[in-house]
Amino acid sequence: MPERIVVGMSGGVDSSVVALLLKREGYEVVGLFMKNWEDDDSDEYCSTRQDLIDAAAAADAIGIELEAVNFAAEYRERVFAGFLREYQAGRTPNPDVLCNAEIKFKAFLDHALRLGAAKIATGHYARVVRRNELFELHKGKDASKDQSYFLHRLNQAQLSRVLFPLGELNKSDVRRIAAEAGLPNHAKKDSTGICFIGERPFREFLNRYLPHEPGPILTPRGARVGTHIGLAYYTIGQRKGIGIGGTKDNSGDAWYVARKDTGSNSLIVVQGRDNPLLMSRSLRAQDASWVGGGAPAAGSAHSAKTRYRQEDADCVLASAEDGGIAVEFSRPQWAVTPGQSVVLYDGPVCLGGAVIS
Q1: CATH class of 280-356
Q2: Where exactly are the structural domains of the chain?
Q3: Residues 6 or more apart from 246 whose CB is under 8 A from it?
């Protein structure tokens, strides 16, 4: 009997091509559509209903079964609650990292195993390489689509059960394969942004769940240049939407958010993208997670990303102890943001990472 592979199908072209390729390889493929959000999931902002229709149409074209499963309760408890706590604390979390570790490769994986799956597969652009008894997480071949950053919290047990068929492909190849196979979603636009917010205005969404307390917008010298609507609504490096247009000094440079002082409820802003207060030569991070199980040696040289789509930056892991790490960069890094993840690499190999504190 062929191995059963359960594919997480989102309705997009990537996951549909994954199911198609695995079916062609002779696996018994079952599609699984995950509903992770129920609050205010109307068609105005949330595409879940249309995505399910698209996933069903693709599954029908491929000739596989599709099951829909509701993980909204798990998502709210394991991902969204932490998302709100981080924003309340003045940090800027990345829910996609936690969603992968807790929902797509935990709740989904557990459900797939109960369905008799040997493994699961998703449309992520990444690769799993087995060396002896160790499963390594590698970057995807298409550097512009590589998603290993979002997968850095996966462990050995999870990686041993995962297939990433798109890891060796470019996005253009995926579109071509889908079009040639006549998949109805071959030209569907890729989804962007945080899954449960969709296309709705971010501040409008956050205002429904978090209290907001206005406070002063200050320069580093303490001069008040405006009033913010609540620290949770801003992130380090933000330029647009600060609300202090027309208060520039003689330099004429734009304002950027440099720091959030939760003690005084103050938003600290600076002028110019290259302002020294926006640059960091080092950082500390907590809640470290390592793909291979153990932290790299202190003093070891690596490359790192402090945000998705950032170029790799040369660094040294200065220390790693008690779940926390310190990282020192060879060149200053722009807008290092508490709550985001710093992810370490050895060449194409993703080692793991931690949450910037």
Answers
A1: mainly beta
A2: 4-180, 211-273, 280-356
A3: none
